[in-house]
Structures are given as C-alpha cells and as structure tokens.
C-alpha cells in the first residue's frame, strides 16, 4: 500500500515522501480501515519537526484521523462489520491507504455524511468536544478566548461552544488576514495576537477577563493568558505550535488570581481513556450529521498533496481544515 512517510526530522517537506509500505494487519481488539479520507493536523508538523513524543520512530507515517470502510476485524472485535463506513482516531498512521486502530476509537459514520466531512471529526471535532467538556469544563454563559481561532480546531471550538451555551466568544489569530475566517466560524471578534491584545480583550469584557482560555501555543502566551483570565478562570494548554520549551508560571500567580492551568492531549485520552474519545467522536458525528456543527473544509486530492497542506499549517497559512482524499 502507499503511505506518506517522514524519513527524518525536518523543518520543511525535504524528508517527506509517498512510498510503498507493507499493509498493516489488525491485532487483538483492533480494526483495519481502507482509508478514503484523512485529516491533516498541526500534530503532523510537530512530528515532522521531531518534537519529543510525537514520532515513535523513523521513517514515520503521520495522520491521526481517518474515514473509510472497515477492512478487517482483529481477534475479539465483533463490529462494525466489514464494509461499514467508519471514522476513527488513529493517533498516527492515518495518511495511508490502510490504517489500523483500537476498536474503541472507531465509530460508524451516520448516513448522509461524506468521508471528507467525517475525516474532520476524530481529531479536530473530537478535540474541541473534549476541550470544552472534561478539560475546560465550560459552563453556560462562560466567556471563552481561543488562540489560533482560524484553524480547524479553532473553528470547531467556536461552533461547539455556541451549542454548549457559551457567552462572549473571542478568538485570536496570527495575522489580520485570518480574522475573517475566525469570525465567519462564529467568534464575536477575532483579535490579532500582539501589542494591544490585552487592552482589546479587557475592553470587550468590561475589565473582567475571560472565564476559559484555550491555548495551542505552548506557554509562549501564558503571561498574556494570565493577564486575560478572570478570577476563578481556567487556562487549558493543548499544543505547542512554536515548538519552543514550555515553562509554567510560579504557583503564586495562580493562587493570587484563583486561576487553574491544565494540559490536554487527545492522544493521552486515546491511550488511557479510549471510551471517552469514542463517545465524543460519536457525539460530534451526530451533530455534524444534524447540521449543527461544521467547519471550513479544504479537500486536497492524493497523498502527494498532504505535504503541501502540512507546510501551510507550519507556516501559518492554513485556513479551516485540510482533508486528504486518499
């Protein structure tokens, strides 16, 4: 079968290629899937850079979310039946013609959703659901600020936060050219990260700050987050887009503001609580099928185009959600 490979760490596409690799077979409690569409995520970029904890070895096949049809069931797995359209969180290995995944992370696609739509659910939409649920503990009426609001997860967070009763919804973007995509997704305002951000947020919150901040930028903006969070608020870090070393603030700053900082990893949930990922995936697939939840999709044809999409994310040029038609 064909798969996208990272041969070794690189800052660009220099060591990325499409190659023939052995077809993986499902083991006990696993399902193999003939992939029809696969999502592109910033985690691909982090793995390609060689950030610790993302690539398990070299060469490495990236891709953490897929949609396709069940190819085979491993020992101890009773369903979904072979041929069933499914979406799945793979963690890695999804940008290939065949992927193998734990059975708990596989959910049947509701009739009416395309493979492209479904491929955005296991990583992107499910991440948003878990961030607002067990990680961020969103309450009705809470104000929310999301960094990188124009990206796939950022757009998904806007839709789900509205569905879950959020109040004021603010997003930040890296450049003014991306503000329109964020506001189209549902943010009340999309603000450019940089000088003037603190004042702009304070003006919109009457000086109170925001209840929940969701930040995929590592700790690069943590000092700003602490200036923006309301008393008793929560900050959830769910990535490290810049790849710089992460440093947490002194505990005294948290005590003084009655603030909590948490971390989130969907791969951690998939490894230690796969049932939560499966439940969240089924939820967002249902909402997407009902027309309650959608994000801007940018389909690209063929595994050969995946590297371009990854590079667009790496350079901050990506808008919405890239999905590769395999």
UniProtKB/TrEMBL annotation:
Domain Enoyl reductase (ER) residue range list: 11-324
InterPro entries: ADH-like_C (IPR013149), ADH-like_N (IPR013154), ER (IPR020843), GroES-like_sf (IPR011032), NAD(P)-bd_dom_sf (IPR036291)
Keywords: NADP, Oxidoreductase
GO MF term list: mRNA 3'-UTR AU-rich region binding; NADPH binding; quinone reductase (NADPH) activity
Signal peptide start and end residues: none
UniProt-listed Pfam families: ADH_N (PF08240), ADH_zinc_N (PF00107)
Gene Ontology annotations for the cellular component aspect, listed alphabetically: cytosol
Record-given protein name: Zinc-binding dehydrogenase
Species this chain originates from: Kribbella qitaiheensis
